[in-house]
Give the backbone structure.
Amino acid sequence: MKNLKNLVAGVVLTTSCLLISQTAFAQKPAGKPWNAPESAIKIKNPTKGDDAVKEGKDIFNQNCKSCHGAKGKGDGTKAEKIDISCGDFTSAETAKKTDGELFWKATEGRKPMPSYKEKLSDSERWKVISYIRTL
Ligand code: HEC
């Protein structure tokens, strides 16, 4: 009986250790809630079409891929050095957000994510969002 108890305790302990280490390595914690203002969420993306997406892809690869990853999964080379998650642009959670919200966040940034207000024009930022939508 005592052996059985020890065995059960051992299995439970090993399983929880495995689970804890897996979550610690597989996924970084999300940043604090980050909400765009209502007025920004409502703004519609003025760019459309394949050309916008194509240009957006180049801009993404040059400016965003290092953290957000080639496919927007948040697994870029710089992401390893950041303590919070860069998010997953292919997730249902991102799909729920409006282009206006993503545009506002790309504009403002929030450490460690840089602001692109000065670095990219409005049109370039909208095109990146158009591209992110295809991921
Ligand atoms: C240095 C790494 C880094 C770079 C470069 C970077 N980001 Fe980010 N980005 C992040 C991190 C980290 C977050 C999560 C921020 C938080 O939760 O506070 C984030 C969040 C975002 C979000 C919010 C996602 C959501 O679901 O709310 C958007 C949109 C975004 N980034 C777009 C971009 C775009 C567009 C570019 C390139 C023009 C870019 N980022 C470049 C690190 C980066």
Residues 20-25 have pLDDT under 50 and may be disordered. The domain at 38-132 is CATH 1.10.760.10 (Cytochrome Bc1 Complex; Chain D, domain 2). The two ends are 55 Å apart (CA to CA).
